């Protein structure tokens, strides 16, 4: 069987702002989108109601058996067509994402689009091995039997995506689910509805069979409807508060859920760090995407002996960052979400009032849009909101610590545990510290890169989330494991079955052999059990 796109899919018209998503929402409710760059209206967008969501899930349910039964090689061939779509549409997509989010076009291209073919390459290589039935070792006590593990798809996956990386964080979970034979219903964020249309256009141009991917546009009510709908798993990326509600909805059914939530990521600078590299990295790691990333650096823990020198370097490098809109050739755009900007302002002002020093930035820029400058804080204490809570903006708090021991202690004394980094020229020491950090990912002398490594699982501990995606785990999270035990079935009965008469001595022989790892005793015990069984069946 070969899946080929329909002529309509092959000749899809250029995407316009008014293009519908894959699943037509109810036209009765609309919301307005405002530009984060200019503050001007970018149009009104529809909200899918419960009926529209249920229809999308029903279509995905109807498409599931056919997609599940399509050979893996054919599914991979169909999914790999996304590479051609990206090559053809890269500039159009990048500009639309940049307009919607305010981020520089280069960030839309590199952080949103370029990662998709990287992950496609990885999964095209790994999926055939991961999704193939494999034999497992069988203990001595089960002589004559063989165990296998295989995986089968969960079914219809409900995916709720965030606004900070609206293309990447929509597309990658959907692709991971599709590879295993699942179908998907995706709800993009209402904060970035134009990027949601880009995602819908991307899947439409891939020419997948009808119902394999459904996209429902809307607001929080649409996401809530998807959580209530007849899906087999929920995959959510977003805030801790909403993640808890998603988990509660999944628990009511119950169905599995995966939560990719927030972080308060640490950046530990040891006394022997390459300070020049560390300063460059912390500026990028805290300011890229205007600091709106769960992997953004939100706490720099710097050993006392290098603290002042490090802060001076960072201050100088922050001053070089040009802030502006996508058409201004800027390195940092505005914030994307007005409500998040309010959180940033609240955190910085509360820290200032509590005694923190604001060395750069610290106030919203006096221009249209949601612009906030790169902001550097020192004298930050653990009792401040900006130290404890996720800020999710272009703010870098620096905390002076006595030594690396104090840095590790403070790093782990957090509600979150997503990503951390360690900066030292002693790589053995770096590995020792990395292994003590209670977080899902740790980098040594690097930032951001681990989340873009297709072979590494991504996810957090505590309030940073539940489950893992990316890497092998990123495919298997959407799969049910199935255990298969095979006996050749030649004998009419197993020696351990009824009757138990005259079997106790032989059972003890089997036990001693298994516990003592003595194959001879196991075999003698089984021969005794077999003889007793034969006698008992006469």
How would the blueprint of this fold be written?
Elements: H1 7-10, E1 30-34, E2 41-46, H2 50-68, H3 72-79, H4 81-101, H5 105-113, H6 115-130, E3 134-136, E4 145-153, E5 156-160, H7 168-179, E6 183-187, H8 193-206, E7 213-215, H9 220-228, E8 233-237, H10 240-252, E9 257-260, E10 265-269, H11 275-287, E11 297-303, H12 304-318, H13 338-353, E12 357-360, E13 375-378, H14 385-388, E14 395-401, H15 404-412, E15 419-423, H16 427-434, E16 441-444, E17 465-466, H17 471-476, E18 479-487, H18 504-515, H19 519-537
Parallel strand pairs: 5-6, 5-8, 6-7, 8-9, 10-11, 10-15, 11-14, 13-14, 15-16
Antiparallel strand pairs: 1-2, 3-4, 4-18, 9-17, 12-13
Quick structural gist:
The chain is α/β, with parallel strands linked by helices and 538 residues long.
What is the mean predicted local confidence, pLDDT?
A: 93
Shape: globular
Broad structural category: alpha/beta
The major β-sheet equals: 7 strands, mixed
Number of domains: 3
CATH superfamily of the largest domain: Aldehyde Dehydrogenase, Chain A, domain 1
CATH topology of the largest domain: Aldehyde Dehydrogenase, Chain A, domain 1
Structure annotation, total helices? 19
CATH architecture of the largest domain: 3-Layer(aba) Sandwich
Side-by-side strand order of the widest sheet: 12-13-14-11-10-15-16
Helix content: 40-55%
Rounded radius of gyration (Å): 27 Å
